[in-house]
Design a protein that fits this description.
Layout: H1 32-46, H2 49-52, E1 58-62, E2 65-74, E3 80-81, E4 84-85, H3 86-99, E5 104-115, H4 120-137, E6 140-149, E7 157-166, E8 183-186, H5 192-202, H6 218-227, E9 233-235, H7 241-253, E10 256-260, H8 268-277, E11 291-294, H9 296-307, E12 316-322, E13 329-332, E14 338-340
Parallel strand pairs: 5-6, 10-13
Antiparallel strand pairs: 1-2, 2-7, 3-4, 5-7, 8-11, 8-12, 9-11, 10-12, 13-14
Helix pairs in contact: 3-4, 6-9
Length: 353
């Protein structure tokens, strides 16, 4: 592979099939174990064409309206970290999932799972975060629920948020729409959220403060759709990082993806922390970044629009879709070599969202 000319058409992973009789942490990590759990357990049990699309949010019709519907549960530890906390993470995460289908997020539900003995002041801080984040994103929390479990049977505060939004006419954004020739654009630097959470969890200092990138992306997507409604794919690289998002799109669309590793922006403190900890930034979670697949003829205009928004000012082209090596993501390294960027097995950093 060092000469950059390896034929990847027949590449397959030699690892044996995994057989876990019990749930392990990797099942919630957004990687291969999560995919297997969904494909072999949940999809057969639930069925349904909409669910089988496995997008960040489901696109459903209700009368004449097309709605996006999404849900997510947040179990981050610790509850607060540089740049945010579980409250704004819960709002931004669901808003972003809706935005990745091109929807205009409108309404959220919010459910709390609380452990007996948790200070009410802690719950109040999380609720205040949720309210502030919802106002900043332009959405309303309109319903919710609260449950309490026995002391020792939880971890303080878990939060579930679900959301709905309206998909504009003419917008069809989903993983299966990527096609050869598409340009891949990343909205900004990678790895800040995962490393920020890890730093406070483990009491690590990396010399320079690393702050989570958590933010609502619906405003950035709105600016992109003003350029063209024919954006093919949007993904926010959360669990499993950029590597997982690119693999999900490649597999759903049957296209190959070539990633220019030199073009991927990784802040120096994040790169240093990853080198120290033996982590790959491509697999570290983000909470305020998106990756877009757009037709080549629209790429320059979309990139310009992204750079005109505060959350996309560092947007950059990082790769392209190709007909070669279908469903496989390949990175071109700084040395001119090639390497497979596979779907992670589990998650490098658990409990980060």
């Amino acid at each position: 592979m060092t000469d950059g000319t390896t034929d990847l058409a027949d590449w397959s992973c030699p690892a044996p099939l995994r057989d876990h009789p019990v749930v392990v942490m990797g099942h919630g990590g957004g990687g291969a174990l999560s995919a297997e759990l969904t494909e072999h357990l949940f999809l057969p049990a639930y069925g349904g064409e909409v669910l089988a699309g496995l997008a960040d949010s489901a696109a459903v019709s209700l009368g004449d309206a097309r709605l996006a519907f999404s849900t997510d549960t947040y179990v981050v530890r610790p509850l607060a970290f540089p740049g945010g906390g579980i409250g704004d993470l819960a709002v931004n995460g669901t808003v972003n999932d809706l935005a990745m289908s091109g929807a205009v997020p409108a309404y959220l539900s919010c459910a709390f799972l609380l452990e007996e003995g948790t200070p009410l002041s802690t719950v109040g801080r999380v609720a205040d975060q949720i309210g502030a984040a919802a106002r900043a994103a332009g959405v309303q929390v309109v319903t919710g629920d609260t449950k309490v479990v026995d002391s020792g049977h939880g971890d303080g505060v878990y939060v579930n948020t679900s959301g709905i939004g309206l998909i504009p006419e003419g917008v069809d954004i989903r993983p299966g729409r990527a096609r050869p020739g598409d340009v891949v654009i990343l909205s900004g630097p990678l790895g800040q959220h995962g490393i920020a959470v890890l730093s406070v969890r483990e009491g690590l200092s990396f010399g320079t403060g690393i702050v989570s990138d958590t933010a609502p992306l619906n405003g950035l997507v709105r600016e992109m759709l003003l350029v063209t409604r024919d954006i093919h794919v949007l993904r926010d690289p959360t669990r499993g990082g950029l590597a997982a998002s690119l693999n999900e799109v490649a597999r759903a669309s049957g296209t190959g993806v070539v990633l220019d590793e030199r073009a991927v922006p990784v802040p120096e403190p994040v790169a240093g922390a990853c080198a120290f900890l033996g982590l790959d930034p491509l697999y570290v979670a983000n909470e305020g970044r998106l990756v877009a697949f757009v037709a080549r003829e629209d790429a320059d205009a979309v990139l310009e629009a992204m750079r005109g928004h505060v959350l996309g000012r560092d947007a950059v082209v990082i790769g392209a879709c190709v007909a070669e090596h279908p469903s496989v993501v390949v990175a071109r390294t700084a040395l001119g070599a090639s390497r497979i960027v596979d779907l992670p097995l589990g998650e490098q950093l658990p409990r980060i969202c």
